[in-house]
């Protein structure tokens, strides 16, 4: 097996042959992360592409050495017993490109928990973290990947550094197919939601909330509501230009890759979201809601519209993205988990992000740099 840089078109062509891949591993994502230098790489066997990766290079201050980052990637066969055959040529190439360390996020599930288990965990005062609850399922593939990475000298990252823009290890997902891969009906998915979610979806409909697909010109309205949400919920919003770049880049790759959704009540924008889909995997990426008119339940209405659209597009999973591991009822983050749990899906733990120091001296200095940044 060999590895070399590939064109964006070769990269795109391979991803279309897969059931799905993370949108963070599409060549379009390089345009969104313009502050990183980007490169598409491909693995070849007998002249055919068998794997791809989007590498983002971030330069260390004042030094021409880079952290090479593959968010939620690379897109390779993670199920085998010889990961070294895949990772060794990748590391060698990245070292030649000036990487002092490689960071990647294997898109491999390790554990799953049902909505009922999470609800019980929140109610149990002895439970503080998701890991305290015995999982519904442990993945053999996930365990095999983690064991091999440890053997190969990779280091699992537990703390998130601002430099890395790390991805969540725990996500909440709604399966849109059953265990045999047969698509679920809208009625079945709706019945899987808790009573509050079903009631709120019905209330939004009765209140006259109208949900529609937006266009690029509507990004300004989305962003105004998103900034309002950020002020209310105490997080730092991204600039409008970030969403315009994302919309243009992902939309150019596939017209249905990114969608803007708007929920209005009597002409007022009450909720707005951005959804992304690659193949059979659909993601809820960003959301915003008004403090006024919360009683019309625009957020529930827009989520239900996105789920129905994902189902119609043939998606196998609707991914509400990250949750924290806390199940402590007194933790302010638990409200977000409870909102997502209401959809009746499942919590999914991925293998997390892993580093391989290539130059240990510089990597140590990099870790100290992150620690000083807090």
UniProtKB/TrEMBL annotation:
Source organism of this protein record: Nocardioides eburneiflavus
Family according to the record: Belongs to the FemABX family.
Lineage: Bacteria, Bacillati, Actinomycetota, Actinomycetes, Propionibacteriales
Pfam (any one): FemAB
GO MF entry, a single one: aminoacyltransferase activity
Keywords: Acyltransferase, Cell shape, Cell wall biogenesis/degradation, Peptidoglycan synthesis, Transferase
Protein name (record): Peptidoglycan bridge formation glycyltransferase FemA/FemB family protein
InterPro entries associated with the record: Acyl_CoA_acyltransferase, FEMABX, PG_Glycine_Bridge_Synth
Record PROSITE patterns: FEMABX
Single GO biological process annotation from the record: peptidoglycan biosynthetic process
Gene3D superfamilies (UniProt xref): 3.40.630.30
Origin: domain of life: Bacteria
């Amino acid at each position: 097996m060999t590895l070399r840089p590939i064109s964006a078109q070769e990269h795109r062509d391979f991803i279309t042959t897969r059931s799905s891949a993370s949108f963070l591993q599409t060549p379009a994502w390089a345009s969104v992360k313009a502050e990183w230098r980007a490169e598409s790489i491909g693995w070849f066997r007998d002249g055919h592409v068998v794997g791809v990766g989007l590498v983002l290079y971030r330069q260390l201050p004042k030094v021409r050495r880079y952290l090479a980052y593959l968010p939620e990637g690379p897109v390779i066969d993670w199920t085998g017993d010889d990961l070294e055959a895949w990772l060794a040529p990748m590391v060698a190439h990245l070292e030649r490109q000036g990487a002092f360390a490689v960071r990647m996020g294997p898109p491999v599930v390790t554990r799953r928990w049902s909505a009922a288990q999470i609800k019980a965990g929140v109610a149990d005062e002895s439970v503080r973290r998701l890991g305290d609850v015995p999982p519904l399922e442990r993945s053999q593939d996930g365990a095999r990947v983690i064991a091999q990475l440890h053997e190969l000298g990779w280091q699992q990252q537990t703390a998130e550094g601002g430099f890395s823009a790390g991805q969540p290890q725990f996500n909440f997902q709604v399966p849109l197919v059953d265990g045999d891969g047969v698509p679920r009906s809208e009625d079945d998915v709706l019945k899987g939601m808790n009573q509050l979610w079903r009631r709120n979806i019905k209330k939004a409909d009765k209140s006259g909330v109208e949900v529609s697909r937006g266009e690029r010109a509507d990004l300004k309205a989305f962003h105004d509501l998103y900034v309002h949400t950020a002020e209310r919920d105490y997080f730092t919003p991204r600039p409008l230009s970030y969403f315009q770049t994302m919309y243009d880049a992902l939309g150019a790759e596939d017209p249905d890759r990114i969608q803007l959704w708007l929920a209005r009540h009597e002409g007022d924008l009450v909720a707005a979201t951005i959804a992304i889909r690659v193949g059979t995997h659909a993601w809820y990426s960003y959301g915003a809601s008004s403090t006024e008119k919360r009683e019309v339940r625009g957020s529930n209405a827009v989520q239900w519209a996105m789920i129905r659209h994902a189902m119609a597009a043939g998606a196998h999973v609707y991914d509400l993205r990250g949750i924290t591991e806390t199940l402590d009822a007194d933790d302010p983050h638990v409200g977000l988990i409870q909102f997502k749990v209401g959809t009746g899906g499942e919590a999914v733990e991925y293998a997390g992000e892993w580093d391989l120091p290539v130059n240990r001296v510089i990597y140590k200095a990099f870790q100290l740099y992150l620690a000083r940044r807090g």
